[in-house]
Amino acid sequence: MLRAFLASLTVVLLAGALAAPASAQRFNPNAQRPSREFMQERQGGPGGPGGSPTFDYSAAAGIPLIDTHMHFEFGNGQRADLPGDAADAIAVMDKMNITTSFLMPPPEGHSEQVPYDLEAFAYVMTRYPGRFRLSGGAGSLGRTILTTPAGAVTDAVRQKFIARAHEIAAAGAVGFGEIGIEHFALPAMGPRHPFEEVPADHPLLLLLADQAAELGLPIDVHFDVIPEDMDLPAPLQSPPNPAHLTQNLPAFERFLAHNPKAKIVWAHVGGEPARNRSLELCRRLLQDHPNLYMSFRVQRGLPHPSYALAPDGTLKPMWRQLILQFPDRFVFGSDSFYTDDPRTRRGGDIEGVENFRRLLAQLPPDVAAKLANGNAAQIYRLGK
Fold first, then answer.
1. Are 350 and 43 a contacting pair, CB within 8 Å?
2. Is residue 383 a part of any domain in this protein?
3. In this structure, are residues 138 and 180 in contact, taking their beta carbons and an 8 Å threshold?
4. Please, are residues 148 and 204 in contact by the beta-carbon 8 Å criterion?
5. Res 274: pLDDT
6. Which residues are bridge partners to 65 per DSSP?
7. Which domain holds residue 226?
8. Degrees to nearest 5, angle at CA 219 with 218 and 224
């Protein structure tokens, strides 16, 4: 039954690709631009949250976006309105000139969560051909990684893991994700948002890197970096997060170096909660690991150096310099959780898209186009 479903899903994916080729998705001059009225409606009035002045990003408003990292609230254990979530996402995508979004399950492995994977999104691929691409593995490969001790990885576990990776590829996925390695629970994301942790050099993560290289599918990872042993920083809370954190950076670098042909997309650069992902660290890792890429989830409100934008929306000069130094290594990943019920809304959504357009407006046009859509098309081989 699974084999038949995967075959039918592959047909749907191929039909969507033919209906909306990558070149059309990347450069669509007829796509609708976000209106100021729409922005105000979604953010609660003129100027957005807190009444801050509206940033003029008109120079970047017409650039089509590829969002490489987004979710639905569907499957969070409390509600399961897939059609409603999809309709909400399409409304935002149409208004904000997002031609394509990579839909993926969130990091999975917590016993209280209901695991699901890319097969759950067959409706979306049929209803909106060409608008979504799927990343998979969070509810299957990710769960296996998080629940299998390193010493319990037998040949049987490895073979089952490899077979599932190939199933995901056969279903038409553009990547593996969102794979959790170090994942802090955030108060703003609600009481069900889990803390998850696994060594980045876990044998199944290394095996996933080998499969990613073989299959040509990038891995989207959630990795809250801990450069050195430290107490849990504010505003993170313990529990569920541990009060003391153990460094995880050396294991992450072993993961990056394990198979240089595996493309690793490190999600949520530009505004991560632990505030350990410094510009200097990003620069060193990009220099040392040519297979490393990063997706921007851009937040404002803090002058902290790990935030790419200042509170007024200005792109910090050193972050601009980093982008210009590595113009082919960054993509957009909003981390939005779309829902038709505003009471359950989480994640970046409109404000995150607007913030990313602020960032684009402060870059040279050719570099802005790369971050908006060109790099994603190359990294994820959308034209193939």
1. yes
2. no
3. yes
4. yes
5. 78
6. 98
7. 2-49+60-377
8. 140
